[in-house]
Amino acid sequence: MSNTQKGQRYDAIVVGSGPGGAPVARELARAGKRVLILERGARHERALGFPGGARILEGAGIVCRSREGAYIARGITVGGSSVVYNGNVYFPPERVYAQVGLDFLPELHELAEEIGVRELPPRFFAKARALPRVLGAAEKLGLHFEPQKKFIAPDKCRPGCDSCMMGCPRGAKWTTRNMVDQACKAGAKLLTETRVERVLFEKDRAVGVVTARGEEYRADMVVLAAGGVGTPAILLRSGVSGVGENFYIDPMNIVVGHAGKEYPGAWGEMSFTHAIEDLAQTEGFIIGNVSAQNALLTSFLRANVARHNLGRALQSTRAMGLFVKVADSHEGRVFADGSLSKPKSARDRARMKRGTDLAMEILARAGVPKTAMAVGQSIGGHPGGTVPAGTAADFRLRAGRENLFVCDGSVFPESLGVPPSLSIMGLSLLLGRMLAGKTRHEDRTTAPGGRLAAGRASSTWHRTVSESATDCLKRYPA
User: Fold this and answer.
1) Which among 29-38, 74-83, 461-470 has the top mean pLDDT?
2) Which CATH number fits domain 9-116+168-246+384-458: 3.40.190.10, 3.50.50.60, 1.10.3720.10, 3.60.15.10?
3) Which CATH number fits domain 122-148+249-331+340-380+462-475: 1.10.10, 3.40.50, 3.30.410, 3.10.590?
4) Four-point Cα dihedral 93, 96, 97, 99, nearest 10
5) What's the pLDDT band for 48 if we cut at 50, 70, 90?
């Protein structure tokens, strides 16, 4: 924790150190700005992974739920939710650049190059037995799993470890902690375990923040990057209206089961190494693999899965699963106290049923009797939409007041339909450059329906650089 003086004035206060906060903080610090980063969580270094890593999730990964019972995963630690993601790399759909009014594609490519995008090498799947059966079962249904590009250094990662969602204990998974450290090296100050209560205004201009402990920190600008839940709650407590609605979470159903006695399960395999991506645009969901370990962890989130697994405790090595992640409608709401409402629309229910039925059929063909399956429902991990660009925020990412900016998942008006971390980081990097005067807004603007930058890469970038599932089967035979 930095020894920050409350009487000092900063050029910028950045609230949050995850994908939305870290890049903009680093960019401003490197431009010579006096930057203060305020992070609600601690810097957890020890006992990451299962089970100790659960403490870095809000509500220990169990009690953070909407009023309707939907579970929402949020990382409350230095690095935010980048510490609890699977490290999967996706570029956003084309429509997103017009929706937020900014062309941040160059930043996406720059970040992918800087961090390093990799597929896990074949040795990570040498002992996989469930995965080849799942890939083959999907192929017979005309569905194609693609290997996932990740922000993971294979030389540091241990095959069979599946701790990404509770913090990587080996430092193999890249997180925005790297950028926070770089920002601090450039002169930024980091204050941890500091929850921001509200933004300070003078004559309708943001001039600082007040913490939950009553401390005041002053700055010439404030950037809120506390996530799709944290940011609108702070704005509402600050008296800013028109935020908090339009809430989506990309809910998952996790279908878990135990293979028949003649089949091994996914023990010692990793989750979300392969996914059916083609369905994202046509059906509104993606399907990905789930390890035995994470199939069993779903028991802690949903009682019906716990009951399912209780009688099969001695069959843990035969556990396996698939997740179905839906790009949901925007009918939820975040309240000033941070509580949530996330009802299911008829459209979401239909999409989720379609995806869940497909996942169950794949698992059945891979050797899991349907009588041995259970479904953990409504587990969300990509909260957003609550301060949408073009309405609650303008196309400079200003949130209704002068010198007040927002940069996290809350500014995307619609769910991206894919993991959003890279998109949020790219937008944050561009905002930092605009605020530092390195890039002109006029040179990067793209209003809805307007131009897109020349030479833009296809929105199927991730898909086109991946090998086919047929090739995967050759590499990882059952």
Assistant:
1) 29-38
2) 3.50.50.60
3) 3.30.410
4) 160
5) confident
Mean confidence (pLDDT) of the chain? 89
| The two structure tokens encoding residue 102 | 């900014």
Long-range contacts of the stretch 192-196 (C-beta < 8 A, 24+) = 192/1, 192/39, 192/41, 192/42, 192/43, 192/78, 193/1, 193/39, 193/40, 193/41, 193/42, 194/38, 194/39, 194/40, 195/40, 196/15, 196/38, 196/40, 196/226, 196/234
pLDDT of residue 98: 93
Q: Are 416 and 423 in contact (CB under 8 A)?
A: yes
Closest CA to 179 of 27, 328, 348, 383: 27
Which pLDDT band holds residue 101 (cuts at 50, 70, 90)? very high
Segment 74-100, tens digit of pLDDT: 888 999 999 999 999 999 999 999 999
Report d(CA 84, CA 20) in Å as an integer.
Answer: 15
Q: What does the alpha-carbon distance between residue 447 and residue 99 come to, in Å, rounded to a whole number?
A: 7
User: Looking at residues 445-460, what average pLDDT do you find?
Assistant: 50
